[in-house]
Design goal:
Layout lengths: L3 H15 L9 H12 L53 H15 L2 H9 L9 H22 L5
Helix pairs in contact: 2-5
């Protein structure tokens, strides 16, 4: 198998010439590509194009265990599409705790795990505090990329 880093740099060179056609403006796909461009000291042109493909994660996907991450390939960029259940502000703590416990239990059921696996989704339930931290961390991370890449939604 050829060097994955070589393939990654070929992608960057092709992208510099043609532009990347990954997802709509402001999507995680665009942010990830802009982050790759910054780390590789390259310029990339975003061309909005549906649908939005999956992007890299911090760890190898259990669905593609032989495919290295970008970080393993030499560019330290990590992004992961995720979903969360949120409620209106001011929900009582005991209500939040009860809902969280039910969601964690449901996402741990073998039948649910198998259904999600068919969609290439690995459930990773967290606590409300962990979710708040993740949301704040992601906001800070992507705000920096958005500002540096001058991304605007028209």
């Amino acid at each position: 198998m050829a060097d994955p880093l070589l393939h990654l740099y070929r992608l960057i060179v092709i992208d510099e010439c043609l532009g990347h056609r990954l997802g709509r403006t402001g999507t995680l796909s665009q942010l990830c590509m802009e982050s790759i461009a910054r780390r590789a000291d390259a310029s990339m042109k975003h061309i909005p194009y549906p649908p939005s493909p999956p992007v890299t994660t911090a760890k190898r996907s259990p669905f593609l265990p032989d495919v290295p991450t970008l970080t393993e390939s030499g560019i330290d960029v990590q992004s992961d599409a995720w979903n969360a259940l949120v409620g209106p502000g001011g929900l009582p703590g005991d209500v939040v705790a009860k809902i969280n416990a039910e969601v964690v239990q449901t996402l741990s059921e073998p039948a649910v795990i198998e259904k999600l696996k068919l969609q290439l989704i690995t459930p990773s339930p967290t606590t409300p505090d962990q979710l708040r931290k993740r949301m704040a961390d992601e906001k800070a991370l992507w705000a920096e990329v958005i500002k540096a890449a001058k991304i605007r939604i028209d």
